[in-house]
Amino acid sequence: MNIAGKRQLVLGATFAIAAAGMALAPATPSHAATRTATTLASCPSYAVTYYGKTGSCVKLAQQLLIKHGYSVGSSGADGVFGAATLSAVKRFQSARHLDATGVVDDLTWKALLRFGGTGSACVTKTYNEMTVPQRLGQLIMVGMTSGGQSTVHGLVSNYHVGNIVYLGGWSGDGTVGRTSDGLQRLTSNSATDGVAQLIGADQEGGYVQQLTGAGFTKLPTALTQGTWSSSHQQSVAATVGQQLRDVGVGVDLAPVTDTVPQSLGTGNGPIGHYYREYGYTPSVVSRAVTNVVHGLNSRGAIATLKHFPGIGRIANNTDTSSTGITDNTMTSTDAYLTPFKSGISAGAGMVMVGLAWYPKIDSANQAPFSSKIVTTILRGNLGFHGVVVSDSMSAVAVQHVPVGDRAVRFIAAGGDMVLTGSPGEVPTMLSAIRARVHASSTFAWQVNHAIHRILTLKAQHGLLFCR
């Protein structure tokens, strides 16, 4: 059915199509279709190929809705949507902040199809189909403020950036949801090869909560949360996870996993000063971190343990200072690593590396540039196999390192995703990474593994589309 030149699948109580055995269009070479609507008489070929069956578009959509846990009622004939199915489609669209019109356009098909593709074969296939610039774009997470959207959109379209973090404060679930939807609409063949954006936000509570207003629970400080019962900690985290997922945010850059000694307290610039710690002992922090990770995981949100290996014993804030950021106590067997181990055991998908110095572990390299910290301790001793993200590489603490070198050295140390709050740094970082890939087979191997870890995390959370 052709409506005003657009090809759409319209769901209605009495709308029927031709016989169930109708022919379907053959698969096209692209695994990420252009963002135009599709016709009722011809399902998008990528949908048919992905699902591995033929039949009517309506039946296919019904089967996908069921996969997502929606009831489609008992409408009988293949090709006819009853009221229950139409309602399910609208609820599905609303939950993902797609226009709840009942029109299954390309974006809705993509969302319906994102229930599978979690295996290594999907990751390998996606990786092989991407261009080199598209692969490298997955290594970057860039900060986006409400006033900087056009700049970040350009980075996605022209530099293939694959991950976004909301910064600067955002108000209202409607605004955030529409913004997330807009970011996903940019994931075209030419931009990210159809790989969806991993979108994150700092949703800790207290002084650090990027998403506020309607639709977002106002959270107290972590120090208050640390006094709650385990069940309440987990329940609130589950609520936060659901609220994030409802607006298209898949990553919570939380929980703070740092332990601040009570003797230092608010004298600790980055954490204690803002009451961001769950408590003053590793055991109290471990309990809270475990519960928060479980709660976020229960709603499909990715938890991020931060700031490895811990910035609870430094004086100044690495965001704003390059001095007073040395922990002269931390060792490779420090008790303050215990909360990170607990969070990893609980299933955290990401770990953020802080920007402090730890001379008893590595006197020559700052944490994000230290293979002893990132590879030996985090990946080796603690057994973390997920995605390692940096703290913001636009922070004052790393200004002594050239922009491109920050990205290269972090990945060389064992990191995966370079986070920067300054969009203007992205082209330089990507250029430096690509140059180093060409110059060093060892670094190229590290980049390859980093991209695979990121794609694996995306696959686990329904952000890859595999035929």
Describe this structure in words.
By secondary structure, the protein is of the alpha/beta class. The protein folds into two domains: 2-113, no CATH class; 120-460, TIM Barrel. It contains 17 helices and 16 strands. The strands form five sheets. An eight-stranded parallel β-sheet has the order 15-14-13-12-8-6-5-16. Helix 11 (230-246) crosses helix 12. It is globular and about 65 Å long.
Summarize the structure in short.
This protein is α/β, with parallel strands linked by helices and 467 residues long.
Write out key terms for the chains shown.
TIM Barrel, two-stranded antiparallel ribbon, hydrolase, beta-N-acetylhexosaminidase, 2 domains, 467 residues, disordered N terminus, Peptidoglycan-bd-like
What does the overall shape look like? globular
Helix-strand category? alpha/beta
Which parts are unreliable, with pLDDT below 50 for 5 consecutive residues or more? Answer: 1-42, 49-54
Computed over alpha carbons, the radius of gyration is 23 Å
CATH class of the largest domain: Alpha Beta
Distance between the termini: 25 Å
CATH superfamily of the largest domain: Glycoside hydrolase, family 3, N-terminal domain
Order of strands across the main sheet:
15-14-13-12-8-6-5-16
Number of helices: 17
How much is the average pLDDT?
85
Second CATH tier, the architecture of the largest domain: Alpha-Beta Barrel
Q: How much β-strand is present in the residues?
A: 5-15%
Write down the CATH topology of the largest domain: TIM Barrel
Kindly state the percentage of residues in helix.
Answer: 25-40%
Number of domains: 2
Number of strands: 16
The largest β sheet comes out as: 8 strands, parallel
